[in-house]
Amino acid sequence: MTRLSGETALVLAWIIALISSLAVLFIGEVLGQTPCVLCWFQRAFMFPLAVVLGLGLWWQDPRVGRYGVALALGGAAVALYHIGLYVGLIPEAIQPCKATGPSCTDDNQVVFGIPIPLMALVAFTMIGVLSAISLKEKQT
């Protein structure tokens, strides 16, 4: 089995972050789905990932993966909480979304039959793992 190089892992992490960022912009701006409060918090972690990882690749910074891990952990934590709301594990009384705004738990949170919080969790997990892999290589 071929081992994934640190640079390849970072390129893959950056591609996932870039596609995820563009996808949520498409969902919001083209499809017109207003994001809920938790979606905004997840975006606050995803958008910088696309920029930071991209700049780290451009500048050939072998340690940029540590920022990828940190941002991915934060975003994954919010996405995990969001999934808890979506599936009903977290009581409705502590939901952060307002009654007048978009809901964290309705069909507005589903794209192609997959809940947006689940997509976000998978993306953040993949970015975090790939960023960590990039740090495993011996740094010079």
Automatic annotation (TrEMBL):
Single annotated GO MF: protein-disulfide reductase activity
A cellular component annotation (GO) from this entry: membrane
Pfam families: DsbB
Gene Ontology biological process terms, A to Z: protein folding
Protein source organism: Aquicoccus porphyridii
Alphabetized Gene3D superfamilies for the sequence: DsbB-like
Compartments where found: Membrane
Annotated transmembrane regions: 9-28, 40-59, 71-90, 110-135
Family to which this protein belongs: Belongs to the DsbB family. BdbC subfamily.
Entries under PANTHER family matching the protein: DISULFIDE FORMATION PROTEIN-RELATED (PTHR43469), SPBETA PROPHAGE-DERIVED DISULFIDE BOND FORMATION PROTEIN B (PTHR43469:SF1)
Protein name: Disulfide bond formation protein B
Membrane topology designation: Multi-pass membrane protein
Keyword tags: Chaperone, Disulfide bond, Electron transport, Membrane, Oxidoreductase, Redox-active center, Transmembrane, Transmembrane helix, Transport
Highest rank taxon of the organism: Bacteria
